[in-house]
Design goal:
Order of helices and strands: EEEHEHHEEHHHHHHHHHHHHHHHHH
Structural class: mainly alpha
Number of strands: 6
Number of helices: 20
Number of domains: 3
Largest sheet: 3 strands, antiparallel
Distance between the termini: 95 Å
Radius of gyration: 35 Å
Strand order of the largest sheet: 1-2-3
Shape: elongated
Oligomer: single chain
Length: 486
């Protein structure tokens, strides 16, 4: 019978029988006494120790007799539920005759220890399950009925610390795996790429160890972006293929349309136009099925479509798609869209330049520069710098220049130096040169061919050394001169 008793100390004292029915223990002294015995379940507690805890400052004249009276009262309450014999008398004191695992505090400690062992063994899923079950037993402040008693305050502090540790251990299997990913992602946003990729690979290993598909897919998409930056297109495709497989298993169709759009952009950069078109069509169909023609993801896919139309030679379609994207942007008024608008405008700007609409293209780049300059994500500004490097070497610039602007518009060699400097500034802002861009490598090669390697390297290095303010001033002057020429 005693073993059927369940004692809950992780909150206000509750005592229950095997059916879950509550057993009443009334009065603070009786509840303090029961808490003390429960914290020593299965062990004899000396009478003097019990008396000292119950009456620490104002002991009765005969503590032994007073304690016997208190024990009798507690037994009387327990007798009503059929548990009078659970408190045993011994020559040295008293014993609560229940196993420690009948007390929630001890059960919690045991489960927390099992969870830590599972976590240390690399079994994060099992650890999370055990720790979740352990934490469910908490209903409030531990030993709430004995607050102010030394034994209870010490035990409650230890249990509370253990609870906090268990909460961290329970959350951390996922959060701990995600932390390097977040560090790497935010590092890339700030142009700090030194550890970004290795951080993401650390997250990938952790998510795979957890068999966590969504987390692994998110990391793989980020790793594909790093691979794209260094023009490792096969590596980027492999990462995206694996991410797509995870997304399909999860039924995460929004993620899958994004992944397919990324694959289309990579295949485009590889020169696989047919593969890019197939991936883009698939991504657009998936996105339309979820959100309709006006969804944000479809507009992002539209940027890939603009680039693909240009590479396919369908400049009219590229222009139409560019107009559609710009029309969509007009409805996006929130501050959150400001920086992204700067990035989005780069693609139609370059498409309009390629279509021969230099005035529209340059005006969009000027707008993009102003927006990107105020945005926290540095790759956006780097992309605009790269695009302006394309602009200053565009066939219409510095070709037929007005005779009254020789001091503002450079000749071919000066234009190449300016482009190299802007590319260097983009490198500094982003943390690397964008080898996977459709346009930046072309601008770099054109400038290097015209200048020769030493002069190109010197101009590029100058750009990398520019302060943010100086780089912005240089880009603004380049766009302003080009716009004036138009």
């Amino acid at each position: 019978m005693p073993n059927a008793l369940r004692i809950e100390l992780l909150g206000p004292l509750q005592v229950r029988d095997e059916s879950g029915r509550q057993v009443s223990v009334g009065g603070r002294q009786l509840r303090v006494l029961f808490c003390l015995l429960a914290l020593n379940a299965g062990r004899v507690v000396p009478s003097g120790s019990i008396a000292g805890q119950i009456w620490p400052d104002d002991a009765p004249g005969n503590p032994g007799n007073a304690l016997q009276t208190l024990i009798s009262r507690l037994r009387a309450e327990l007798r009503l539920a059929g548990f009078a014999s659970v408190i045993e008398s011994h020559p040295a004191g008293y014993r609560l005759a229940v196993r420690p695992d009948a007390v929630d505090a001890f059960a919690f400690e045991a489960m927390a220890a099992r969870g830590r062992r599972a976590l240390a063994a690399g079994d994060a899923q099992t650890a999370a399950r055990i720790l979740r079950d352990a934490l469910v037993s908490w209903r409030g402040e531990a030993l709430a009925d004995a607050v102010g008693c030394d034994f209870a305050d010490v035990a409650a502090a230890r249990l509370t610390e253990l609870r906090a540790s268990a909460q961290a251990d329970r959350i951390d299997p996922w959060v701990r795996a995600a932390q390097p990913l977040m560090r790497g992602t935010f590092g890339s946003m700030l142009g700090q790429l030194d550890q970004a990729e290795s951080d993401c690979r650390e997250s990938l290993a952790a998510f795979r160890a957890m068999n966590e598909a969504w987390g692994a897919a998110a990391v793989l998409v980020q790793l594909a972006e790093f691979a794209e930056l260094r023009a490792d297109f096969p590596g980027a495709i492999a990462a995206l293929d694996e991410a797509a497989e995870q997304a399909e298993q999860l039924g995460a169709w929004g993620d899958l349309s994004h992944v397919n759009g990324k694959r289309a952009a990579i295949r485009l950069r590889m020169g696989d136009l047919a593969g890019a078109r197939a991936d883009l069509d698939r991504a657009e169909a998936e996105a339309a099925q979820r959100g309709g023609a006006a969804s944000d993801v479809l507009v992002w896919l539209g940027l890939v479509g603009i680039e693909l139309h240009c590479r396919e030679g369908d400049m009219a379609a590229a222009r139409r798609q560019g107009e559609a994207v710009l029309t969509w942007l007009e409805d996006k008024q929130s501050g959150w869209w400001s920086g992204l608008t700067g990035l989005i405008k780069v693609t139609p700007a370059l498409a309009f330049l390629a279509c021969g609409d230099e005035v529209r293209g340059r005006r969009l780049l000027s707008e993009a520069l102003n927006l990107a300059a105020e945005w926290v994500e540095r790759p956006v500004l780097a992309a605009v710098f790269d695009a302006i490097a394309v602009l200053v070497q565009h066939p219409g610039q510095p070709g037929n220049l007005p005779g009254n602007l020789p001091e503002r518009l450079p000749g071919p060699r000066e234009a190449a130096k300016l482009a190299a400097t802007l590319l260097g500034a983009a490198h500094s802002v982003r943390g690397c040169f964008d080898e996977g861009s459709l346009d930046a490598p072309v601008a770099r090669d054109a400038a290097r061919t015209l200048l020769g390697e030493p002069a190109f390297a010197a101009a590029y290095a100058r750009g990398r050394e520019l302060s943010s303010d100086d780089a912005l001033a240089l880009a603004n002057s380049a766009v302003a001169a080009a716009t004036t020429a138009c």
